[in-house]
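Case study 2.
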Amino acid sequence: MTSFTYWNSTVSVENKYIDSVTEIPQSICVYHTGSSYNQLKGLFVMRLFVQGEGINEIEVVEVEADVTVEEVIQKAHSLGLPFSETGQEIWVGFEDEVAALEHGTQLSNGDLDDRRIHCHRCHEVKVSVWYNNLKTEEGFSPATTVKRVFEWATGPDGFNFSPEDAAESILQVMGGSEQPASNVHIGSLVEFPNCELQFEIVHRDRPQG
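Prediction:
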């Protein structure tokens, strides 16, 4: 057995830990007894949930501890994020956050624990929502979820739906029939340089029976 200490506690792990390091709790900072953190850094990985431009589905990748924002961008490129041809800096941020992470920032387990991260060449997405031939619009970060946009559009700053009407409604992409899931990041629905998105509010279909 090998002991690891974190905070003021100790946990023992079988010697096979090197082959299954992800079994070690993800949300704690782990240190090997008697060894420096840097010596063991390469042995520890964090799960990274990535969505973004060119990455429509949520992708789970493993990265080393204390990954930098630039390394996250490189991972995103390998998943489908287009390279910037105009020198446009890639926007990187957490789900439903407005502010971008500064390039050069290191991310720890505590930053990434069960959180999704978004990468995009668009730094803001201008969203327009239509209902009964009326339009409301707002700028959002590309990491904003469809759920957050729906809450804004049907809330006091939008069309001010009653809870009952909101429960019977859903966002649909204008000009088609696509109704993105509530956890989809709006950035995954647009591609630079077109950083605009239009929705309409439609009645939610209910299964019969």
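The helical segments are 37-40, 69-79, 109-112, 146-154, 163-167.
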